[in-house]
Specification:
By secondary structure, the protein is α/β, with parallel strands linked by helices. The strands form 5 sheets. The protein has a 7-stranded mixed beta sheet with strand order 1-2-7-8-9-10-11. Strands 17, 18, 19, 20, 21, 22 and 23 form a 7-stranded mixed beta sheet that branches. It has a 5-stranded mixed beta sheet with strand order 12-13-14-15-16.
């Protein structure tokens, strides 16, 4: 049975949700599942905006046929060629023999890489700012390369001022009936997943996101329809502000997140004493994560949120504790920058990981490392406790300083 929702009288959400998938891209945990959004415009001509993942193809086609109600599908607009959005292209071509695919030259290169399809006479190739008239509705296309693939474009429907934004403005999380942002408590239930989605999927491409935001700033947009997550029909400034901050690598909050690795509890004990001291000094909402048991994507999301980090780990095989090393490699790969970082190391005979963590942080841009760097030998003792308190004072001063 079909399950659709109207965006407007002429535009229908025909996507679906997968609550069975455990790992998005076989990497990122999605305990709340994920939505695959697709949109169908009914006018003199009909146009489908992207397809969905193969896992929900049955629901997808039921939604399309119910919405078309016997009409043919004239156009398929492919804004993004990642397989979770393009898995049904071949089936659509078979079911609608007069269907034409709308894309840019890189779109069609990727189609031929993924599929063995005869596209002769079945394509409409668009350039930047080209328009496609459907009747009363007109789609205008703007390229957004590397947000987050090179072929990405967005489609702006001029009459109803709808931006079909591909993977931009998306989020992890299945839709529980509530499709629109004003139907959910976004801050409570969606923001962390939207931030984690951005940071891990799009985060590396901040300059390209800034370029896209600048390009789209001249459009009069009432609704944003992404390929994952909620549809935005109100408070667009909130969403655009988040994307502006994230893509400039500016923290959302003046706050501290503490990420530690601990083999036998001694490094964790130092973290507990440090955070208790910060709390007694008046610092609120301190976040603490064990990097061995917290997925790195969650840690990345928190680093996008917070202005200050504490990285605490033991030396392991004369190097950085592996889970912490993995986080630092991800931070570098995602171009994370502009954070204040405190370092704490442990080592029973040759503590050296703080020096190595500093070296990796110094390869990133605008990473300020607080002094002192705390070195523990096996467990916290009186002399190192003084150093830990000095680091607590430095963190407090940095967190509370006024610009």
């Amino acid at each position: 049975m079909h399950c659709t929702r109207n965006i407007t009288d002429s535009v229908t959400w025909v996507g679906g949700c997968d609550r069975r998938l455990a790992l998005f891209e076989n990497l990122f945990p999605i305990p709340r599942g994920v939505a695959y959004n697709s949109y169908l415009i009914l006018d003199e001509k009909t146009a489908l905006i992207d397809t969905v993942d193969s896992s929900i193809s049955r629901q997808f086609f039921e939604n399309i046929f119910a919405t078309l109600n016997g009409r043919p599908l004239d156009y398929l607009v492919v804004n993004h060629m990642e397989p979770d959005h393009c898995a049904n292209i071949e089936d659509l071509m078979l079911r609608f023999p007069n269907l034409k695919i709308v894309g840019n030259p890189k779109t069609f290169t990727f189609i031929q890489q993924f599929y063995d399809l005869n596209l002769e006479g079945r394509t409409v190739t668009v350039k930047e700012n080209d328009a496609l008239s459907l009747g009363k509705h007109t789609l205008r296309f703007y390229f957004a390369p590397m947000v987050h693939w090179p072929e990405v474009m967005v489609a702006y429907e001029e009459s109803e001022r709808i931006l079909f934004s591909a993977d931009a403005f998306g989020s992890f999380g299945a839709l529980n009936g509530n499709l629109f942002n004003d139907e959910v408590n976004f801050d409570r239930d969606w923001l962390a997943d939207a931030r984690r989605y951005y940071g891990n999927i799009v985060g590396k491409y901040g300059p390209q996101v800034q370029a896209a935001l600048k390009k789209l700033s001249g459009l009069d947009i009432d609704t944003i329809c992404p390929l994952h997550g909620t549809v935005w029909r109100s408070d667009l400034g909130y969403l655009l502000e988040k994307y502006d901050l994230w893509s400039r690598y500016e923290p959302e909050e003046r706050a501290v997140t503490v990420i530690y690795g601990s083999m036998y509890g001694d490094t964790e004990n130092a973290v507990d004493i440090l955070t208790a001291g910060l709390a007694e000094a008046g610092i609120k909402n301190i976040a603490v994560y064990d990097c061995s048991s917290t997925h790195v994507s969650t840690l990345i999301g928190e680093i996008f949120r917070c202005s200050h980090l504490v990285l605490a780990a033991p030396t392991y095989n004369n190097g950085i504790y592996p889970a912490m090393l993995n986080l630092l490699h991800d931070m570098k790969a995602l171009q994370l920058q502009n954070r204040t970082v405190a370092l704490l190391e442990n080592g029973s005979w040759a503590p050296s990981c703080a020096k190595q963590m500093r070296a990796l942080l110094e390869e990133m841009e605008q990473m300020r490392i607080l002094e002192p760097v705390v070195t523990i030998r096996s467990s916290l003792k009186g002399d190192t406790l003084e150093s830990l308190y000095a680091l607590k004072d430095a963190l407090y001063a940095s967190l509370t300083e006024t610009n």
